[in-house]
Amino acid sequence: MDENQANRIKRALLKTGHLIGLFIAMAIICLPGLWIVLSSLRPTVEIMAKPPVWIPQSLSFDAYIAMFSGVGQGGIPVLDYFRNSLIISVTSTVIALAVGMAGGYAFARYQFRGKSAIFLGFMLTRTVPGIALSLPLFFVYAKLGIIDTHFGLILAYVALNVPFTIWLIDGFFRQVPRDLAEAAQIDGCTRWQAFWQVEFPLARSGIASAGIFAFLISWNEFALASQLTRSTNSKTLPVGLLDYTAEFTIDWRGMCALAVVMIIPALTLTFIVQKHLVSGLTSGAVKG
Amino acid sequence: MRGWKPAPHVLLLLPAFVVLAAVVIVPLLLSLYSSFTPFRLTRPETIYEFIGLRNYIRLFADREFWAAFGRTVLLLTVALNVEMVLGLFLALLVEKATRGQRLLRTIMMFPMMFSPILVGFQFKFMFNDNIGLVNNALQSLGLTDQAIPWLIDGKLAFTSILIAEVWSSTSVFAIFILAGLMAMPKEPLEAAKVDGCTPWQSFRYVTWPFIMPFAYIAMTIRSLDIARAYDIVKIMTDGGPAKRTEILWTLISRTAYSDARMGLANAMAYVAILLSILFTVMFFRQLAKARQQIGAEW
Fold it and tell me: What is the complex's ipTM, to 2 decimals?
């Protein structure tokens, strides 16, 4: 009886401990983001107040309205940056997906010499730190005259994304049984038709998530963009965020608002693909 | 050449080869060459002057460079280890949860969506000595009555950067380890229990080996874009105060673009690239080894 009770108490303690731990972990994860959102809605006076004002007295969308009306507060052309970010990210994602699909399919379906070496070689190109890559790219782009253009940045981002899309898409094609395409070929499809009619639809959702992954990398990239862009012609949002700190006084509220604008597309898209992302990256883990 | 048809896999891999060669390999060869010249952006003709290894010799004698190098390695080692341990705890916590797992998993992915530049900004905001959340909270709780100079003191600034880095990347580990935990077959665990293993023993000898490959995938992915830390440091302290948080990548960008000494910066960049490759290859090989071990046991 005594032992029973001790066990029960122990179990209850463990359970509360678990809940508390979970709660603290989730709070630490969520708090910084929520604080940014809250700060973007508060007047600057409240953000700067000493002693701090904990309970917001007045909330408004002033910062967002200021940001999207014309040049925006402090002369920062957020709309231009937003447009640049969108054009560059979407275009580079589409190209990287096409290249990645070809490459991923080759790795998943064909046996050839030096396969794993080539795969590792592709991955290693990704390890080159953005800032180290930006030095020669800056020089080459300056010679070619494509600094501060959409084209230059798109080209760089395609190269940045190709290794990851190949990795992911390779994993998704491996999950599609080989026999299906073969059966289709026996039924009279060409290899090309078999790919588009059978294999592609089955791997489609995975490929879509690879695309979103690529989009996010382009959307968030900073090290290359900060050196290869100069003006509103091609500056992206992450570079634009730095405009706020360059000024003498930091406009915390404006920065917070811009941060929220940057995070919303990323948030929505990641939410959509979260399941595929993990399964794609881990598909090779156990099966080898 | 009529009738000559390359193998399909060559054709399929060609676009990837071309893009990577054009944007990564060729520029890198160029930068390798220019690391042997005293190239300055302001004097373009200097790129044709060959000075051999002088840039590298200069680097190896440069204390500032080695300080930055050491700091980078320290930052990466500490960050990756802490992220690994915290990620493991987080994954175990979430896996044990009986209800609301979907919600918990979504929340767990939250920091992954933040671009490093945003992480840097958000922690710069929170660690601000005057209006930041951290100091405000500490003061309101009465734990301290002074403003702690988080980003102004060298050691504290390094700690703050470390916290930002850990916050942003722990979830990568947690997600992959969780994926491993969920993919794990239940029979071996039950068998271990029947055989009288303590919870610790069954974790150490059954669960742990199984989730190792997943942890190494996370490690490999992290090491692939390890230089993300540049964005965080750049916006939080920009290498300051007085170069106390200068890491390899901020030093490179300062040397190249502010001092316009491209040749020297390229030499530094090569050291940085080798460092990244070293980290990646290390984890990739661990991954292969762990995978083999799993294959043998299950």
Answer: 0.82
Question: Which residue of chain A comes nearest to B224, CA vs CA?
Answer: A127
Chain B residues with CB under 8 Å of A267 CB are: 113
Residue A286 pLDDT > 70, yes or no? no
CATH for B169: 1.10.3720.10
A258 to chain B: closest CA residue: B118
Q: Is A154 on the interface with B (CB under 8 A)?
A: no
Say if B229 falls within a structural domain.
yes
Domain of residue B271 covers: 63-297
Please indicate, yes or no, if residue B100 is contained in any of the structural domains.
yes
Give the predicted TM-score (pTM) of the model.
0.85
Closest by Cβ to B249, choosing from A129, A281, A282:
A129
Residue of B nearest to A17 (CA): B93
- Which of A115, A127, A216, A263 would you mutate first to test chain B, the one with the most B CBs within 10 A? A127
Which of the four pLDDT bands, split at 50, 70 and 90, describes residue A277?
A: low
The whole-angstrom separation of Cα A4 and Cα B202 is 24
Map A181-197 to HEC letters. HHHHHHCCCCHHHHHHH
In a domain, B101, yes or no: yes
Assigned domain for B259 exists: yes
- CB-count exposure of residue B62 (10 Å: 0-12, 13-18, 19+): middle
Work out how many domains chain B is built from and give that number.
1
Give residue-wise pLDDT tens across range B10-68. Answer: 888 888 989 998 888 998 898 888 888 888 877 777 777 788 788 888 888 888 889 98
| B-chain residues near A123 (CB < 8 A) | 220, 224, 280, 284
pLDDT one-digit tens code per residue, A46-62: 777 777 777 777 777 77
